[in-house]
Amino acid sequence: MSEKKRVVVLLSGNGTNLQALLDQEHKYSYQVVGVISNIPDAYGLERARQHKVAALGLDHKAFSSRTAFDLRLIQEVNRFDPDLVVLAGYMRILSPEFVDRFAGKLINIHPSLLPDYKGLGTYKRVLADKKPLHGCTVHFVTPELDSGAHVIQASLEVKATDNEESLMQRVQTMEHQIYPLAAHLFTSGRLQLKEDKVLLDNHPINPLGYQLKENALELA
Ligand code: GAR
Hints:
Blueprint (H helix, E strand, L loop, with lengths): L4 E7 L4 H9 L5 E8 L5 H8 L3 E4 L8 H14 L4 E4 L8 H6 L4 E5 L11 H7 L4 E8 L9 E8 L6 H24 L3 E4 L2 E4 L2 E2 L3 E6 L2 E4 L1
Parallel strand pairs: 1-2, 1-4, 2-3, 4-5, 7-11
Antiparallel strand pairs: 5-6, 6-7, 8-9, 9-10, 11-12
Helix pairs in contact: 1-6
The structure holds glycinamide ribonucleotide (GAR).
């Protein structure tokens, strides 16, 4: 395989998506070269260290403003010279300065079928609304929260017996498959953002759609 592309991951918590990215990098065209967390004791940093990947805790509370923090974050991310910046449970709104700096090479995963259920507490709200379907979306990041162009969506049927925990577990199982795939499509040069449109192999696409069927993801 030609040289691997460089991925930097930003996170704030457990880091199961980081773990999935690390576990699958052997079969894909990217390598995670750095992990940064705004929460210094996030378990995701420990996962990075265990994998011998550079891990940096940068406490946003030590900065006077969002912009001041994000300007430093830009510097730290740039030190890794990334081809792609991946938000994996990064639970802090990014300033326009940061988003503009990495526009077109900044992706996020969100636990809903966007544009439905932007923001926090998606599982609770989906259950309260008795929705038949839930899922997750990989999208390019724009300054507006959870609003950039969609790359991949994966959906599942909500069961009558589901609670927040069971739903989250099944959605995260899908996240752990579609996020490494999205990183691979981007870093292998097949996926790009052009004039706010997602192109796959130079053709505009609707998001790639997957469905969870009997524990396996199938292209919808
Ligand atoms: C993921 O499920 C991701 O979809 C969500 O945070 C979780 C992080 O889990 N992200 C958001 O809600 C962003 N709006 P992880 O730390 O175990 O990867």
